[in-house]
Amino acid sequence: MRLQMTRRLSWLVNTLLVGAACIAMQASAADSWTPPRTADGQPDLQGTWTNRTLTSFERPESLAGRTTFTDEEIAAQKSTAVEKQEAEETQLFQIKGAEDIVLSNQTSLVIDPPDGRAPVRPEAMAIRGARAAGVTDSYKNIAAWGRCISVGVPGGMFPHGFGTEGMQILQTADQVLIVQEKIHDIRIIPLHDHPHVGPNIGLWMGDSRGHWDGDTLVVETTNFHGRGQVASAPAARRLINVPASKSLHVLERFTLVSEDLLQYEVTVDDPEMFSAPWTLVLPWSRNSDFELFEYACHEGNRSIKRMLAVGRARDAAENNPELAALLDNESRPEDDRARDAGRKPLQVLDYLGIEPGMDVMDIMAAGGWYTEVLSLAVGPDGTVVAQNPNWILKMFDGANDKAMDVRLAENRLPNVTRLNDNFGNIGPDDGMYDAAISALNYHDVYFKFGEEVSKEFFDAVYSILRPGGVFAIIDHAGGIDTNNAELHRINVNIPATFAREAGFIVEENSRLLANPLDSRTKKVFSSGLRGNTDRFILKLRKPAS
C-alpha cells in the first residue's frame, strides 16, 4: 500500500510539473487573456471542439532527442497536409480541413517520459498481439471500438481521424458533459467531492469526478472493468488496442489558453500495463462550424459475424483436414471448387454433423454439387442418394440431368446412387437415412405445386430418416411482403411451419450463409447477386423417440 501511495504521489507531482511546463508554452497567449465565465463563475469551456493534429502520438525514432519542431518545419508539415488533401479530395478518408489543423511545436503528443514514448510493458504488448492474432477466435479479442461499444477513457479524447474528431462540451453548475461524435459516447463528469463508486463496480469509461483548479478543469477517473483499451484510434499506432487493466487511473486537465484553443492534458497510470505513468498533451481547436453527426456504428457488428465465420471455417478445416484436402483436390470440378467460398461446405457439413459412414439423401440434387460434397464427407463406408423429380431434371433445357450424368460417369463417385422419382417414392418408410439435405430448390416446391405437395414433401422426408436424423433446407431468404415467387426466394417461416406439422423439431434457423448486403428484393439470378444471395439453413431433427 505504501509503495502504491508513493507511486501515486510521484505521479501527481510529475503531472503538475508537466502541466506547468505545457501551460508555459502558451504563456504569451494566456498572460494577456482572461477566459470567459459561465453564470456560475466557472471558466466557460462550452462549444464544439476538434482535436485534429499532424503531430505523432509518440515521438518517431528519427526525432529521438528532439522535443520541438522549428517554425520552418511546422510550416512545411502544414503545407504538405494541404497539398495531400487537395490531391486526394475524391478519396473517402481524407484529412479534412488540413489548413485549419492546430499544430503545437511538439515532436510527439506524449511529452513524458522525456523520450516521448509510453513505457508499455512487454506483457501488455504480448496480450495485444495475442488478441490481434485471435480476432477470428472470439469476439472478446476484438477491441471495444471495433465492436461499436466505446472508445473508452482517455481514448475518446484522442485524435481518431475519418472525420469523427468532434466533441461538444456542455456545462452546468454541478456537471460537465462531453459529447463525443465517435461511438456517440457521452461523458458525464460530476463536479463534487463525493467518493467514486465502490471498487466492485467496473465500467467501460470508468467513473469520473471533476473539480476546478483555478481556471483548469481537473478530472480523475477510476473504476475501469479491465475489458477496454487505453487507445483505439489508428493515430495511436504502437499503442492502439493496448489493453487497460482494472488498475487504470486517469488524470485529465482541460485548460482554455485562448478563445479558440483548449489544451487537453492527460496522465495515464496503469501499473499492470505500463512500467510508469505517462503524459500526453493535445491542443483542441474551437470549430463552431463542425457538426456532430450520428455515429451509426453497424460496420463492426456486421463484420464481426464474418470474422468469426472465418474462424469457424478454419476450425472446421482443422477438425477435418482429410475432408478439407478432398474438397480442395483438383479431382473436383473447377466450377464446384469456385462455389465453395459462397457455400462453405466444410462449415455446413460440420454444422449438420455429417460424418464418415453415414447414409444421406440429397433431395432435389439438381446437378449434384452437394451430392459430391456429401459423397466425400461420408466416405467409402457411407452412401449418398441423389434424388431428383423429373421437373428438376428438365429445368434449363435438361442441364441438371446432363450435369448429373457427367458427375457420375464411369463410376466416378461409387458411393452415390441416382433416384429419379417424385417425393412420394423416395424410399421405404423404415427410417434408413441418417441425414437429408435439400438446397436452393424448396421455394419451387411451394410456389409451383402449392401446400399439398409441400406437405407430401416433408412427410416423405420425415419417413425416411432414422430417429434423431437431421434434415436441412438451404434456400434463398425472402422477405415477408415481397413477391418471393417471382424472385425465387422464400420466407423461412413457410418451410418451418410445414416441418412442424410433419413432426420435425425446428432446431435453428442458421445464418451461416447469410449476406446482409442482399436486400431480398431482387431476383436471385440478378447480376452481382447470383451465387451470393442471403441464405438460411433451416436445421430440422426427427425426434429421437
Structure description:
With 545 residues, the protein is of the alpha+beta class. The protein has 2 domains: 228 residues, Beta Barrel (Lipocalin), CATH 2.40.128; 222 residues, Rossmann fold (3-Layer(aba) Sandwich). 31% of the residues lie in helices and 21% in strands. A hairpin with a 5-residue loop joins strand 4 and strand 5. The protein is elongated, with a radius of gyration of 32 Å.
Helix-strand layout with pairing:
Blueprint: H1 2-25, H2 27-30, E1 47-50, H3 71-87, E2 110-112, H4 122-133, E3 166-171, E4 175-180, E5 186-190, E6 207-213, E7 216-222, E8 249-258, E9 261-269, E10 278-286, H5 299-319, H6 321-327, H7 334-338, H8 340-343, H9 345-352, E11 359-363, H10 369-378, E12 383-388, H11 390-393, H12 395-408, E13 416-420, E14 433-439, H13 442-464, E15 465-476, H14 484-487, H15 493-502, E16 505-510, E17 535-541
